[in-house]
Structures are given as structure tokens and as C-alpha cells.
Write a structure and sequence with these properties.
Layout (H helix, E strand, L loop, with lengths): L1 H6 L4 H13 L3 H13 L4 H14 L3 H11 L7 H4 L7
Helix pairs in contact: 2-3, 2-4, 3-4, 4-5
Length: 90
């Protein structure tokens, strides 16, 4: 993905995929930088909120993560792959 981003630095799909992967790997600092970049470039807010909530889970801030995921869940209808990750709330 990093090589792809060197060739296509403004490819939001690649940026998102890398941020998602880094979140899974608990690489918070790099993920935060990618999220800031995506926000600045106008990437949709709700998927970024989803990543933020997942980071909160990784930091042990479960109540805040659950509140965020509960709040954004209805808006994730445009992103069914993220919406299907709801079992985290159950």
C-alpha cells in the first residue's frame, strides 16, 4: 500500500486501507496522521469516526468507543462493511 501511495499519493481508497490496516495493528500515531490527512482532503467523516472509535477500543476507552459507534451506526448505511462490524457493540 505504501508503494501505491507513492505513485498515487491522493488516492483516498489506499489511504483509507492503510489507516484501517494500521488501526488493526495498533499503530496509533501513524493512523492518526493518516486520519488527519484524510479529513483535510475531505474524506467522509463517518468512516473516520469509526476508525477513531476503534482506536479508543485499543486504548481501553470502551465507554467512549461504544458511544461513538452507537451514534454513527445509522450513518454507516453507505459503508456496509463498517456497519457489519457492529458486533463490537454487543
Amino acid at each position: 500500500m505504501r508503494q501505491g501511495l507513492k505513485a498515487l499519493p491522493r488516492n483516498h481508497d489506499l489511504l483509507w486501507a492503510l489507516a484501517d490496516l494500521l488501526t488493526r495493528q495498533d499503530e496509533r500515531e501513524e493512523t492518526a496522521g493518516l486520519m488527519t490527512r484524510l479529513r483535510q482532503e475531505g474524506y467522509p467523516r463517518r468512516p473516520l469516526d469509526h476508525l477513531s472509535a476503534r482506536q479508543l477500543v485499543g486504548e481501553g476507552h470502551w465507554p467512549e468507543a461504544v458511544r461513538t459507534l452507537t451514534r454513527i451506526h445509522p450513518a454507516l448505511v453507505r459503508w456496509p462493511d463498517l456497519r457489519s462490524r457492529r458486533p463490537l457493540l454487543q
